[in-house]
Amino acid sequence: MTLDEETCYRLLKLVETKSDMSQRDFSRAMGVSLGKVNYCLNALLKQGWLKVRNFKNSKNKLAYAYLLTPKGIEQKACVTKRFLAKKYKEHKQIEDEIAALKIEAAALK
């Protein structure tokens, strides 16, 4: 399994806004498997983009909080720019496809 750009972006965004979510919560919010979230979090921890802290949650259980490191904040900006560029490219491709379909549909009349 590789750490794809979209998963990385979405996970970093969630960590930045909701650091006390569990891995299961991240999984549900992102619509990916728990295993994928675990793999990605561990990869980001190894890269030094995240750090993890223990805390007691409302059920008085020990839980983890994932926090962006200064390096993680910097890298999130880079990932966001690349993800945005990818989405712009996809948007342009969809616009081109719609234009071609309009021409095709007009020719069928």
Automatic annotation (TrEMBL):
Transmembrane segments: none annotated. It comes from the Bacteria. Gene3D superfamilies: Winged helix-like DNA-binding domain superfamily/Winged helix DNA-binding domain. This is MarR family EPS-associated transcriptional regulator.
